[in-house]
Write a structure and sequence with these properties.
13 strands; 285 residues; 25% helix
Length: 285
């Protein structure tokens, strides 16, 4: 005899099926934050007060042949300055109401504090990447074409001609740029050998070395959709760019009785500017 179709199923018995929540949250993925630590910093100069950082530019002077029985030839350059304006004021805030805080199985203040701090740090990185890409006048490579060893050598040549110091040189690539480098033998040789005692790429974004440049990968560089997609990687010396953090990211918490909740705010104040345009190169790929 057939039993029919009156079964207790997952639908009819749904009230017996609990939803089990994980003890940990699944956080949104975060980009590598690399640029702010690779540029020239003027934080200390602006911490106490001020709306700009004025950086005097010191010219080279000439050497002159000394002629017997004549005075020396004086150098009298008219010097200029570079101004970094402190005009970037950003915040990331959340308000956690008591209702959800009381019933949540997680410490929401801690969870969102971390995300607010990351949001500000990512904004600093994005700001530097956009400013460098817009104001670096030297370029190598072509959009839609893989970065190759010749592009790297061409970028190195531009910095060499500009007399950029051989130390503190960096190549920061997009994810697609990193993929391109994995086909460059000179990069692979270093990557395969590794570097004893070096911090991991997960913590620093550093992925190798090539012709004296420390190589980093960042998802915060300028990538413009189109045909082809325009990937803008960056080669530069530390003094190519100036960053002045007047107020480092800081957290404030305030009880908001009218909303029966706690307000969490992270904020920062900074300014930045290309310091030596000939010490930076946009690598198109």
């Amino acid at each position: 005899m057939a039993l029919g179709s009156d079964h207790i199923t997952g639908t009819t018995g749904n009230v017996f099926r609990p939803n089990i929540w994980s003890q940990s949250t699944l956080k949104a993925r975060e980009s590598n934050l690399v640029l702010a630590k690779l540029v020239r910093r003027y934080d200390r100069d602006i911490k106490s007060a001020g709306q700009t950082v004025e950086i005097p530019n010191l010219s080279n002077i000439s050497a002159n042949a000394k002629v017997a029985n004549t005075q020396v030839t004086l150098n009298a350059p008219t010097e200029t300055k570079t101004t970094v304006t402190i005009n970037q004021h950003w915040e990331s805030s959340v308000l956690v109401e008591d209702f959800v805080d009381a019933q949540a199985a997680y410490d929401l203040a801690v969870e969102y504090r971390e995300k607010a701090g990351y949001a500000i740090a990512e904004k600093v990185d994005n700001f530097i990447a956009s400013d460098m890409t817009t104001n670096f006048t030297q370029t190598v490579g072509s959009y839609g074409t893989a970065i190759d060893y010749d592009d790297i050598l061409d970028g190195k040549l531009l910095l060499d001609v500009a007399k950029a110091p051989m130390t503190e040189r960096y190549l920061v690539v997009t994810p697609k740029g990193h993929r391109d480098l994995l086909s460059v033998d000179e990069f692979i040789r270093y990557d395969a050998m590794g570097a004893s005692g070096q911090p991991s790429a997960i913590k620093t974004g550093k992925v190798g070395m090539v012709v004296g440049f420390e190589v980093f990968m960042s998802q915060n560089l300028v990538v413009t959709a189109g045909t082809p997609v325009e990937n803008n990687s960056l080669m530069f010396h530390r003094e190519a760019y100036a960053l002045a953090m007047q107020k480092d990211p800081r957290f404030e918490m305030q009880r908001k009785t009218e909303y029966l909740g706690d307000l969490i705010v992270c904020s920062a104040l900074w300014g930045g500017k290309v310091l030596r345009a000939d010490h930076g190169v946009t690598v198109k790929g």
